[in-house]
Amino acid sequence: MGWNIIALTNGEIDKSKLKIFAEQYYLISCAFNQFLFNACGSIDSETIREPLLENLYDEHGRGDLSQSHRELLKIFLNATEAGEIENLVPFPETEANIYGMNALCLNGSVNEILGALGPGCESFTVRQYKIIYNALKNKYGFSDEELIFFTEHIKHDPRHTADIEGAIKISVKSDSDIQEVINGAKKAIIYETLLWDGIYQMSL
Known about the structure:
By secondary structure, this protein is an all-alpha fold.
C-alpha cells in the first residue's frame, strides 16, 4: 500500500491529516459501486455475474440502506472532522483510479474484470483493512463504532474473494484466459497504488 503504511502503523501521520484519507476513500467507496455495476453489465453469464451482484447487495446494506457501506464510512468521516460529502473533490490520482477502473470494468474482457475485482482488489482488502484498523484504533484512538466500515469488510470480504475465485475457475478455459486474469489484476493494482500514493503525498 503506497500510503506509507509504516508511518501509519507508527502513528507518525498527523491525526488532522487523516480526514484527507477519509474524504478520498469515501469517493472511492462511492465509485466502487460503479465498478460493480459496470462489471455486471459487461458479463453475460449469470453464474459468473452472480458474485458481483452479491457484492453489490452487500454494498447497499443487503436491503437496509442505513447499513450501506457509504453510511458506515460516514461515521469515520465524521470522526475525522472531514468536509461535507457534497463538497468533496477527488485528487487527480483518485480521479485516475476511478476512470481507470471504470474503463476496465466497461471495456475489459470477462477474465480481466474478474482479475481486477478479485485478485487485484478483494483478495488483499482484508489484510489491508486489518492494518488500517489496528493503526487507527491503537495509534490514533478511534473507537470500534467509528471504525465499523473497516471491521464489516474484514468480516465479509473473505466471502467475496472466495466467490470471485469460484467465478474465475468457471470462466478460465485456457492459458490465455489465465493471462487475462493476471493482466486485469495488475491494472487494478496500478490504480490502487496510484490512489494511495496520492493520498500520502497530500498528507505530508
